[in-house]
Amino acid sequence: MPLRLRSFARTLTFAIFLPLGVAACATTPPGVLPVADITPSIEQLAAARYGAIDTEKFPVPAVSLKQLKQRNMRELVDYATDQPVGTVVVDPKGKYLYLVQEGGKALRYGVGVGKAGMEFTGTAKIAYKREWPRWTPTQDMIARSPEKYQQWAGGMEGGARNPLGARALYLFKDGKDTLYRIHGTNEPWSIGQAVSSGCIRMMNQDVIDLYDRIPDGSKVVVLG
């Protein structure tokens, strides 16, 4: 379990296993917080999950609370599906990505998705993964917006300004590159919206977390 989730788990464990006598008292002894006061606030959760990361090749800044909506924060949720554990399920309509877990659960991440008519749907596999990937716009992207993309026709090296962010997972179908990616973003405000050229974007902190949890070859289902 990543460090930031372990600290959150310890907090919840402490709250759950407080002595019953303390939990039942009408008054609280000096220096002991009531159970209700131990529940982490949204600000504390945001700091734990979306704080700055300084152990990467390039710095990952904290996500501003002004740009972070609670619905987009990573969390473990109930999730009924017939997909096997380890499958990545993307729900473009809901703007969520689910990593299927055991016991009817899933890790849910807020995502940004493709604009109407530009999104991928169906089943694919993660052929390979890359840290701080190089980015090259597709020919379709260059044709649509040459003033924006032509300068990068030869590619952009990985880095803090790269549109693919800290990680990229490359989707292949029937052995062929779909040209769609699950990747990070340097625009966290775009999470929860349909703004991309078809790819599935995540906050850098989330795509790093997902990257560490799934191997090459993992199944990806993008719902219609």
TrEMBL record:
Pathway: Cell wall biogenesis; peptidoglycan biosynthesis
GO annotation terms (biological process): cell wall organization; peptidoglycan-protein cross-linking; regulation of cell shape
Keywords: Cell shape, Cell wall biogenesis/degradation, Glycosyltransferase, Hydrolase, Lipoprotein, Peptidoglycan synthesis, Signal, Transferase
Signal peptide range in chain numbering: 1-24
GO molecular function: glycosyltransferase activity; peptidoglycan L,D-transpeptidase activity
PROSITE patterns the record matches: LD_TPASE (PS52029), PROKAR_LIPOPROTEIN (PS51257)
Domain of life: Bacteria
Presence of the UniProt keyword Lipoprotein in the record: yes
Any single Gene Ontology cellular-component annotation: extracellular region
Domain L,D-TPase catalytic positions: 86-223
Active site residues per record: 183, 199
One Pfam family per UniProt: YkuD
Family: Belongs to the YkuD family.
Protein name: Lipoprotein-anchoring transpeptidase ErfK/SrfK
